[in-house]
Structure formats: C-alpha cells, structure tokens
Design brief:
Layout lengths: L15 H22 L2 E2 L1 H4 L1 E8 L5 H10 L6 E5 L6 E6 L7 H12 L4 E7 L4 E6 L5 H10 L4 E10 L2 E8 L2 H12 L5 E9 L1 H29 L5 H22 L2 E2 L1 H31 L5 H11 L1 H21 L3 H41 L8
Parallel strand pairs: 1-10
Antiparallel strand pairs: 2-4, 2-9, 3-4, 5-6, 6-8, 7-8
Helix pairs in contact: 1-8, 3-6, 4-5, 7-8, 7-9, 8-9, 8-12, 9-10, 9-12, 10-12, 11-12
C-alpha cells in the first residue's frame, strides 16, 4: 500500500517566506498572550489540594460542583475520572490549608476579643497562627473563636509561658476537610467516600515548575549539540528554532484552551521536542545525501527533492501517531485527554516545522555563508 504513488515535486521552499511570516506572527502572539494572561497552572505548579471522591449513586460532575459551591467552596474545579458509571470525581482547590489572607484577618479579630493580646504571627503557607495572650486562655475558647471566623481548626497547642504572656499556636485544618464538609452540606443525603488526598505546597509547586523548565532547556541544548556534530554547524540552528517553534505552539494550546498546565504538560513538551527533532533529522539526513548525489544543483532544489522524497514517510509516521491519539481523545478523560490533545497539536506543528522552519533556515545560513565569501572575493563554494 502506498499513500503517495510516484514521485512528488511540490515546491515547499518556494513558500518558505509566507510560512515563516505566519509562524512568526502566531508565535509572537502566543508569547505576548502568555506574558499578559499566563497559564492556568494546575495544583502541581500553583500548589493546592486534590481530593478524589467516589459516590455510591449516579452523579454528574456538574451536580458535584453545584453541591460544593452550595456547601461553601469558591470556584472548585471538578473533573470526572474513569467511566461515567463509576461516579468518581476529582476536586481541585487552591491552597493547602483553610487559612487564607482574608480568613486570617477575621481570625485575628476573633482572637483579640478573647483577652489582651501581646502579639500575633501568621504563616499562611503552613496554616499556622501564633498568638501570645497576656493571661491564660482556654484552648477550646481559642478553637471556637477561630472556627467561628471561618477557618477550620485542627488543634490548638499551648506553647507555655514567654516574655510578657503565654503563647498558643493554632493549626488550621486542611483544605480536604473543607471540601468534604462542603460536599456533605451541599449534597444532602449523598453517600460518598474520599479515596485520595494530595497536597502540594506553593514552594514545592514553584520548584517543580522551575525544574520542568530546566528539563526543557537541557533537552534542547543536548539535541542542538548532537545535531551540530552529526551534521554541520549550519544545521543546528534550524533544528533548535523548529523545536522552540513547536514548544511555543503547544504552549499556545494550553493558553487558548485554558486547560491546566501541570507536570503532564511538561511531559508533552519533552515528547514533542523528541518527536520534532526525529522528523527534522530524517529530512536533514536526506538533504545531506542529496547534496552528494546532486553536486552543482542549487541548494533550494536539493532541499525540495529531499522533502518530497521523505513526504510519504512523514505523512505515514505522523498519521499513524495521530490515530493513536484520536483514540485517547475519544475515550480519555482528565489529564489523559489533555495529554492527547496537546500531543496532537505538537505532531501537526512538529511536522510543519521540519519542512518550513528547520529546512529554510539551513538555506538561509548557506546563503549568508556564500554572501560572505562573495563579499570577501572568494569563489562561491559548490554545494
């Protein structure tokens, strides 16, 4: 079976200026959009709480979300996982503990009503409130006061006497407790069990985000070094630019769709980098072979011949890979769907960039090299 019968003779290089112009406009728009709007960072990077719950009766994600909002949660993200009959959902909430900037102000006001306060310290990241009363205060009163201000309390610890008073530490309850309480209040009579609770602190999320970016940079640097040694120095920039093009385009998918950008997204970008350079190297290898075979021909013709010769292989490889992703798009949910959709975008732009970004840049660098030789009075080098 042959999808393309016979030899094609499409003028890909002739359309390079239009393609590069359109790609540049789209890439600049995406970069500006990221700078202005930013990504919708998931719990992995922004920090927060993930709670997985399973209902014993038929329930939809919209019903769970409405119940959670009715129970007091603010803008929870609810996502169904598995088959619909499993009635299993994941709820994502920002923050690890119930102590927020707003709640901490109310809690401080409530504590000051209990007695003379010497000092109050707050750690929102750790969910802790440190208070020093001049006189002894019952721990239960402290707990009731903070809970009445809107922050759940796990425990109140007496830290003993200190200079000028007695120290107490209020440990706020986790966000998962608030999620569970909200579901019980908003979905009266609903029977569910909590299967999994994951916490990611803001500092850990920032570290994961930074390490993910560094992984992308290291991967592209290693590939650039390989291409420079494997082929020629003028081939390396084209490979690097096409990889950057593909990364930006896939990032644009997350920007426009507002899907969560998390560790799975980093895995997609790393996979796309590998896929893109694989297709680019196949074309580069054929260009190098044709340069030996057709000595004396202009480089644009040689590049066109190489791209046409590998066109059937490119379509087959990209098409078969895309078919597997279509299955994941139809049956996948949650992060699997996000992975498949971003990968499909990456395959399309990766195939495009190998033809219209990587190859034309080789031609541009070769023309610059010849221009320098001509300017210096040297005879033009044959291909």
């Amino acid at each position: 079976m042959r999808i393309i019968k016979g030899k094609t003779n499409f003028d890909f290089i002739g359309k390079r200026k239009i393609a590069i112009f359109l790609s540049s406009v789209v890439n600049i728009a995406i970069i500006v959009g990221i700078a202005v709007f930013g990504f919708n960072f998931g719990v992995d990077f922004a920090g927060g709480t993930v709670v997985e719950v399973k209902f014993s009766q038929a329930t939809t994600a919209e019903q769970v979300r409405e119940g959670a909002v009715k129970g007091g949660l603010h803008e929870p993200t609810v996502q169904g996982i598995g088959e619909a009959k499993e009635n299993t959902f994941i709820l994502r909430m920002g923050g690890v503990t119930q102590l927020t900037e707003e709640n901490s102000v109310h809690a401080e006001e409530a504590l000051r009503k209990l007695g003379e306060v010497v000092s109050i310290t707050k750690s929102l990241d750790n969910g802790l409130i440190g208070v020093r009363f001049k006189n002894k205060v019952d721990e239960e009163r402290i707990k009731s006061a903070v809970e009445g201000s809107g922050t759940g309390v796990k425990e109140v610890r007496s830290m003993g006497e200190a200079a000028g008073g007695i120290d107490y530490q209020v440990v706020s309850a986790g966000m998962a407790d608030k999620v569970t309480a909200a579901l019980k209040a908003g979905l009266v009579g609903a029977d569910f069990e909590v299967r999994r609770i994951d916490y990611v602190g803001p500092q850990v999320g920032e570290q994961l985000r930074n390490k993910g970016i560094m992984a992308l940079l290291y991967a592209m640097l290693a590939i650039l070094i390989y291409v420079a040694f494997r082929f020629d120095l003028k081939f390396g920039p084209g490979a690097l630019l096409s990889m950057l093009h593909d990364v930006v385009m896939v990032a644009g998918y997350f920007l426009v769709s507002r899907r969560e950008f998390n560790l799975t997204s980093i895995a997609v970008l790393l996979t796309i980098i590998g896929y893109s350079i694989n297709d680019t190297i196949v074309i580069y290898d054929r260009i190098r072979e044709e340069m030996v075979k057709y000595k004396g021909k202009p480089l644009p013709e040689i590049i066109n011949i190489a791209i046409n010769d590998t066109l059937a292989r490119t379509i087959l490889t990209s098409g078969v890979t895309a078919l597997s992703l279509v299955g994941l798009l139809v049956y996948g949910v949650g992060e699997i769907f996000d992975f498949a959709a971003a990968m499909l975008v990456g395959i399309l732009v990766g195939t495009y960039s190998s033809v219209y970004i990587a190859s034309p840049l080789v031609l541009w660098l070769d023309e610059r090299e010849h221009a320098k030789q001509d300017h210096g009075g040297a005879a033009p080098r044959a291909v």
